[in-house]
Amino acid sequence: MSPDQNQTLPPQTQEQQPGRETQMNPRPDYEPRYPGSGRLKDKVALVTGGDSGIGRAVAVLFAREGASVAIVYLNEGEDAQETKRLVEREGGRCVTIAGDIGDPGFARAAVDRTIKEFGKLDVLVNNAAEQHPKKDIAEITPEQIERTFRTNIFGYFHVTQAAMPHLKEGAAIINTTSVTAYRGSSELLDYSATKGAIVAFNRSLAQKLAEKKIRVNGVAPGPIWTPLIPSTFDADKVKSFGANTPMKRPGQPNEVAPSYLFLACADSSYITGSVLHPNGGDATES
Question: Where would one find coiled-coil regions in this protein (predicted)?
């Protein structure tokens, strides 16, 4: 089979993380596929990494279902403002909050801003992440390990700790892990390790909060077309992104967002400590 038969996307790359959705070709598909039915009516959600990719699709879908949304992002201001516009187009209120969730002070400030703007918090989506592929474990510096863990798992702790005083009975926490937590990734050792940690965090927190009637679940996406991809990999790798799945293509953010909606609303009222796997048929979950 020639390389062209494995092509799923136009070759492209971006020079720095976080990537920009405005520079992607084609743009990821965030549009919800169905009319809203009020499943999150009058709810307030906080979505980290909500400016683009999966986070954008989740924010827009939540808004369609009646939620107000606070989105946290690092420094992708243009993408964040576009997500705000899209949320407001759906009739939702939106606040954008820039900063690094790896900083516990900022995590507290982000939650405080959400409470100040909307008066409560019903759904927390821990979603922000970064990844830095290396071909050899010897190339992974202590600084990179610390940075990846600080964003991908420390940040989940910080934001969740800040949110806990505001989460009441019936609230939901949704943690983004990854297919790499289950099947590994030879060039994303530190990233995969953080995603495995998120699975354990998810299960343990679910047990802890069950008595408070707060549900905790996760989503483990497979290869999804988001700004993290062209800002992580070279053009040749991007060109065949997702081709190794049984469905032979990458997923789109709006194919993942419904998993978050299901876990956020009462449809999943008897589910906690679980992980959903929108991954194109990669049968590795357990």
Answer: none
